[in-house]
Amino acid sequence: MVTQGQVITCKAAVAWEPNKSLVIEDVQVAPPQAGEVRVKVLYTALCHTDAYTWSGKDPEGLFPCVLGHEAAGIVESVGEGVTEVQAGDHVIPCYQAECRECKFCKSGKTNLCGKVRAATGVGVMMNDRKSRFSINGKPIYHFMGTSTFSQYTVVHDVSVAKIDPAAPLEKVCLLGCGVPTGLGAVWNTAKVEPGSIVAVFGLGTVGLAVAEGAKAAGASRIIGIDIDSKKFDRAKNFGVTEFINPKEHEKPIQQVIVDLTDGGVDYSFECIGNVSVMRAALECCHKGWGTSVIVGVAASGQEISTRPFQLVTGRVWKGTAFGGFKSRSQVPTLVDKYLKKEIKVDEYITHNMTLTDINKAFDLMHDGECLRVVLDMFV
Ligand SMILES: NC(=O)c1ccc[n+]([C@@H]2O[C@H](COP(=O)([O-])OP(=O)(O)OC[C@H]3O[C@@H](n4cnc5c(N)ncnc54)[C@H](O)[C@@H]3O)[C@@H](O)[C@H]2O)c1
Ligand SMILES: N[C@@H](CCC(=O)N[C@@H](CSCO)C(=O)NCC(=O)O)C(=O)O
Ligand SMILES: [Zn+2]
Ligand SMILES: [Zn+2]
């Protein structure tokens, strides 16, 4: 059946209102305009950032919308002027765009890209500032420029990475967010050196990927901190060498870590989204050089604080988006690394479900055993 140039009606999970169950709807997906790509999404995973926006706490959360940003699929058709991908290409949608032309892309200092960010932050496409999703004429907002909880989605051409077709899409969908974020936080943002002592706060997918990245970087000690002690056994397989549960200590966790490490860690990573933990993660760093990287996303209205003296005395506070990876250039390389068994991906997938079960899948994410749930979009 020829779909190119036609409106496609397909199934999507629509968030009509914050915190109300997602509803599987028949949505109309318009053809891609100039500079746009329509993707058949075959597999999507759920990330805690989807749950955060769905909760209503994200200032950029607009409703009704189609959430989802960790996925893999096949290009169905492309709009005018799109040269880097074509129908049939295997791709990973990238919420962090890479145009290679804007001030950010050319700076050599960041992976952030300015080309489409203003549009993706308000749920529309850049060309006409409108959505390509609708239900019987009512527009439904995009999310993060990806909206992968739909069997078909439209993305900007700067927001899609072409990958090796040999890669299993049901696995490499994870390379759209959580795993690269953790690895890149270590390799690109912190640039952890061999022999470093590392603290990882939060042992979910992102924290475990930090541990994996730190192990690969040659860290000598990788201290995992989580309020759920059941996380430790699994975390050992990702490189965590020691475990601390803050609930089992009277002293503040930063003091516990400083005492255990002769003055503090070289690098720490906050992978939870809790501003009190962000403070602890900074303050457990070694005086003079310790660097703390904020990875977790905290809700609107939340603010970080510490004594400025912590920074005056040489600690460095940083943050990372998508682990500092340049998406279109580096996601294909991560896929290749996975194919060469140089990075884990399968190990982060604890559940496989279908699009129709998406609400159950979100419930599962609050279960301590769950890392990533991958949805098969066409079953
Ligand atoms: N910066 C980025 O580009 C980026 C990308 C992906 C995800 N994120 C964010 O990273 C965070 C982590 O994502 P995830 O999927 O790994 O989440 P997750 O919920 O699976 O993991 C969080 C872990 O933190 C633990 N935890 C909760 N409160 C704690 C506390 N007070 N002290 C210690 N441990 C605590 C939980 O038990 C859990 O194991 C989220 O905020 C997500 O939105 C950021
Ligand atoms: N709209 C949110 C922004 C949340 C946020 O920081 N997102 C991360 C990616 S999380 C992926 O799971 C990010 O990349 N930020 C950089 C950017 O959005 O350009 C809010 O305002 O809280
Ligand atoms: Zn994410
Ligand atoms: Zn750019």
UniProtKB/TrEMBL annotation:
PROSITE patterns for the chain: ADH_ZINC
Record bears the keyword Cytoplasm: yes
GO terms under biological process: formaldehyde catabolic process
Location of this chain's protein in the cell: Cytoplasm
InterPro entries linked: ADH-like_C (IPR013149), ADH-like_N (IPR013154), ADH_3 (IPR014183), ADH_Zn_CS (IPR002328), GroES-like_sf (IPR011032), NAD(P)-bd_dom_sf (IPR036291)
Top-level class of the enzyme under EC nomenclature: oxidoreductase
Gene3D superfamilies: Medium-chain alcohol dehydrogenases, catalytic domain, NAD(P)-binding Rossmann-like Domain
EC number: 1.1.1.284
GO molecular function, one term: alcohol dehydrogenase (NAD+) activity
Cofactor(s) essential for the protein: Zn(2+)
Catalytic activity: a secondary alcohol + NAD(+) = a ketone + NADH + H(+); a primary alcohol + NAD(+) = an aldehyde + NADH + H(+); S-(hydroxymethyl)glutathione + NADP(+) = S-formylglutathione + NADPH + H(+); S-(hydroxymethyl)glutathione + NAD(+) = S-formylglutathione + NADH + H(+)
Main location: cytoplasm
GO cellular component: cytosol
Alcohol dehydrogenase-like C-terminal domain residues: 206-336
Assembly and oligomerization: Homodimer.
Protein name as it appears in the record: S-(hydroxymethyl)glutathione dehydrogenase
The species this protein was found in: Anisodus acutangulus
Lineage of producing organism: Eukaryota, Viridiplantae, Streptophyta, Embryophyta, Tracheophyta
